[in-house]
From TrEMBL:
Belongs to the LysR transcriptional regulatory family. PROSITE patterns: HTH_LYSR. GO terms for molecular function: DNA binding; DNA-binding transcription factor activity. Residues 9-66 form the HTH lysR-type domain. Keywords: DNA-binding, Transcription, Transcription regulation. This is LysR family transcription regulator protein. The keyword Transcription applies.
Amino acid sequence: MTHINMATIDLNLLRTFVVIWEHRSLTIAADRLHLSQPAVSHALRRLRDVFDDPLFVRTATSMEPTDAAIRLHGPIEHALIIIQSALMMFSNFEPKTADRTFRISMSDMSQLYVLPTMMEVLSREAPNVRVDVLQMPIEQLAMALRKGDVDIAVGYLVEPGEECIYENLLDDEFICLLRKDHPFQEDELSIQDILALRYVDVSSNITGHGLTADAAFGKAGIAREIALKVPNFTIAPKIVANTDLALILPRAIAIQLNRDQRYRLLSLPIELPSISVGLYCHRRFLSDAGITWLRGLFISLFASGSHTGAHIK
């Protein structure tokens, strides 16, 4: 590797290097960096010239790092973290004039609860702020928060890590959702009724809510009959509206879905753990004025006892 003059290094190139390393794909890197793929390809060519090494070699399925890239990755990532932390100490955030994109990870269930209200407020309070919503798997989220790939996460996360700050937004309960003209027309569910129903089950690695409900039913010795498993929440209420299938979900979400009175909401005959919906961010970004403002916005809009949170819940 040749001698490298720091004056020739563009920090954006180093950021591009780290993102390519993380995703092993120029297409995904371009999406994460909000650049075109040709721009990322050009940046990689410049990096190759600087380091006199291919850095990443294309295979049938991915861009694999060379030995030189493997040696470079750790020091470059660490240096960028230090620089970013230093810059944040002197940053200001004025919502009315801010031109910034916030990256928020949340499940489609959380999106239904959060986004309509949040975007209405942002359009007034921070008209030039953009939101990039991601659905980051739980096992990847702590690392994404640490690296700054995600600014905040909303939902119920299992063991997000000690490096993450957690703030409770609300506690909710699970209920059973049926279509309004479902054959079951009693006002209360018994355990026998729970066993007799057939269900849509949402199996997602984006949130831990499903795991909590399944564990509680299992502990109570209740084996529900799952007629349909889906990987996300969005389609489940539509299935319930057109079939005799039932859905177990948080009450706050069910209330939103039932604004047109298409469903029946029934309490469960067993006590399930409450659902804690929280806000997560990494300790490294506590000095980021923009993230601090966004956290405050979430708490004011959705925390228990707030006007919006109390109304929806």
